[in-house]
Amino acid sequence: MTVTDTRQAIDAVWRIESARLIAGLARMVRDVGVAEELAQDALVAALEQWPGSGVPDNPGAWLMAVAKRRAIDQFRRQERLERKVTELGRDLETSAAADQPDLVDVDDDIGDDLLRLVFTACHPVLSTEAKVALTLRLLGGLTTDEIARAFLVPESTMAQRIVRAKRTLAKKKVPFEVPRGAELAQRLSAVLEVLYLIFNEGYSATAGDDLMRPELCAEAQRLGRIVAALRPEEPEVHGLVALMEIQASRSGARVDAGGEPILLLDQDRSRWDRLLIRRGLAALAKAQGLSESSGPYTVQAAIAACHARATTAEHTDWGEIARLYAELAALTGSPVVELNRAVAVAMASGPAAGLELVDQLADEPSLARYHLLPSVRGDLLSKLDRQAEARAEFEKAAAMTRNARERAILLDRAAKCETG
After folding, report:
1. Is 72 helix (H, G, I), strand (E, B) or coil?
2. Domain 109-203: assigned CATH number
3. pTM of the full predicted structure?
4. Which family does this protein fall into (predicted)?
5. Is-contact 31 23, C-beta < 8 A?
């Protein structure tokens, strides 16, 4: 194996093993920041040793063994209690020799450790931005540079955000544990919100030249599946997984060869990923089977399923989608949901009915800078042949969006109104 091949193998191992490695170490040292530093030390050791010795048969255990030794060294240097040294070194004392760390077993309760890491990264003492960054860093295995590029901020900005997040957790003495009772439900909601924020930023980038950032969608889906495996009795976890899987199934059909967006009703549905749709529908069935009443993610997944089950745009059950949006609006009270309901009503009952609902949202403060409000209004006005008004709405929407692809398509629609 060449040095390049080994480096690629190390990168792949890190993406797979880093979350479990950090989670296991955090349980021992009770500090997420220290745990990540130890994991990084182990990664450096791998970069130094594996090109010569080859990738171990059990690379995750090799990394864990090296990281534990570094932890023991740290405790000794800091003259910590001998008890901690004993606890950390117990399994190493009976393991293979130092030159065969790949024979050391990874801790059996790694699932619990991962769950603790999920809840720690999404702790309420952190801002939403910090939660997202720390989740991608600790659980996604992404580098600071990768996270910065995904969110179009300088690497130094993202690095500071991550460092501050870890310092906050340490300063607040946030326990490395899964919350209980009512706090568990509250914190789980925050975890799901973070995962969906990551997915949405990948699915419809808020800024930049690209409509999508697939790597963020993939990370959110992967992390969602992990949480679903760790909390299989929680219906909303499966609801979120279903929603992300079904939405991601359309990714290959959402842009043309030149990168221009293709609207949902114009997409070639043969390009939708049927495997992801099947996974999504299975997760939706699981979510619905766990509870008689559906939560917001499950309802959104049911809406996405209506589109996924329709073989053509014409076969879409818009009446059912409008009903589901009404259910979602009652659950969330979200003006954005009401806007989506207006679109569904327009498809089911005509553009005039939809426009009536949209106009009721005109003075909603939370939508004052939301570019999709004038975009939807422009579309409905155009269908009602009120072209001058439609043009003004599309131009207004184009001025609001920070995504270059969306801006171009909105200006194009405005121009067509002018000549239409």
Report:
1. helix
2. 1.10.10.10
3. 0.74
4. Belongs to the sigma-70 factor family. ECF subfamily.
5. no
